[in-house]
Amino acid sequence: MSWLCVLGWQAGSAAGCYIAGTEIQGLIILNHPGYIPQRWHGSLIAIALVLVSLFINTLLARSLPSIEGGILLLHVFGFIAILVPLWTLAPHAPAHDVFTTFNDGGNWRSNGLAVLVGILAPQLALIGPDAAVHMSEEVRNASKTIPRIMFATLFVNGALGFVMLVTVYFCIGSVEEVLQTPTGYPFIQ
User: Fold this and answer.
1) Whole-structure pTM over 0.85, yes or no?
2) CA distance 93 to 173
């Protein structure tokens, strides 16, 4: 069983770097229309991200708490920096359309099944509480502190994710047009 966990960590690390690398490539496509993307470009950026992660986790291990604090600030301010322009500058769909229109773009023939299949990827955003369990041996009064942290993480991430989700629904525009983006990631468009 332990080997499966190790393989999961390795696959998760590789997948995270690959997704981040291809998202960076998508941003390049968005900002430089003359750029012709190649698959190996995204792989090369992913390898660079793996090397940066390796460098930070090995040579800068003592600075890791400060780096993580900086990333937290970047995350919070980035959340605000994305939401405020969308709320103030983007065209908005009527609330009736946002909350009553369902699109089965995968041709599942059932809105319920389409929702269940579509919820698998966003569900990953809510697995953060698992991280607190790994720190339980280093926390005072872990039997009370860890469950509180786990629930707080779940509720905060869930609430912020819901705000972002509703914002994107109001501002997305034509779904068919957004899905045809050359960036490979509709949320970048």
Assistant:
1) no
2) 7
